[in-house]
Amino acid sequence: ATGAPLLEVRGLAYDYGRVTAVQDCGFEAAAGGVVALIGGNGAGKTTTVQCVAGALRPRAGTIRFDGRDITGLPAHEAVELGLALVPEGRQVFQQLTVHENLLVAGRVQRARADLSANLDKVYTLFPRLKERRAQNAGSLSGGEQQMLAIGRGLMTGPRLLILDEPSLGLSPILVTTIFRLIGALNAEGITILIVEQNLHQTLTMADHAYVLEKGRVVRSGGGRELLDDPAVKAAYLGVA
Ligand code: ATP
């Protein structure tokens, strides 16, 4: 415990037109930790992390990263500070090859000097991507595209890696692989903020977790503590 958290979110709010997706949402992530946002469909998890990463501009609230107010900072500037979002779904450049996708991501200023080292690292973590480096990203399987999306995040040399539903659509064996990988990245010192519906594996790994409901944090605690919480189980199962 060394003072201020790496990420601190207070009073966050976001509206899609007249639909309020996030309101008075607050949470934090200690440097070197794994923090999870959980909750049912439409709880506001994706909107929250998109605000944090600068993909969406919040209506209210403050976001502090490494002691600096980054509220409203656009995504390309947030990346330069070491904050990388791996978006939900297949948001890689479909028409570019695997290799080109990684190169484009690695061209940010903060990671440019480490480009070849980062490429080696990603290809070592994901031999499958190395095999398919010349293949168009659009022709990869869902799991391979998810690996590529994570690889793109790693190419930016992140201090905070935000993962939005990294296990979505993956086979059980790949889910286990992805969670193991996230644990390894965290062990290397990357702080992790993860949005997941995969309750068991997520809470087992998270130091701290926040339950979102209707855009607000309704409960928080240690990962394992929440895993044993009947109310969390009931709410979660109610969604499935
Ligand atoms: P899921 O787990 O289903 O992905 P989530 O917790 O990530 O859900 P969000 O995607 O942040 O939730 O959505 C929060 C609310 O905002 C939902 O009610 C959703 O319908 C609404 N919403 C999200 N995106 C839009 C949009 N582009 N336009 C209008 N409403 C939106």
From TrEMBL:
CDD domains, alphabetized: ABC_TM1139_LivF_branched
Keyword DNA-binding among UniProt keywords: no
Location of the ABC transporter domain: 7-239
GO MF terms, alphabetically ordered: ATP binding; ATP hydrolysis activity; branched-chain amino acid transmembrane transporter activity
Keywords linked to the UniProt accession: Amino-acid transport, ATP-binding, Nucleotide-binding, Transport
Keyword Transport: yes
Residue ranges of the TM segments: none
GO biological process: L-amino acid transport
Pfam families: ABC_tran
Record-stated family: Belongs to the ABC transporter superfamily.
Name recorded for this polypeptide: Amino acid/amide ABC transporter ATP-binding protein 2, HAAT family
Source organism of the structure: Albimonas donghaensis
Source species taxonomy: Bacteria, Pseudomonadati, Pseudomonadota, Alphaproteobacteria, Rhodobacterales
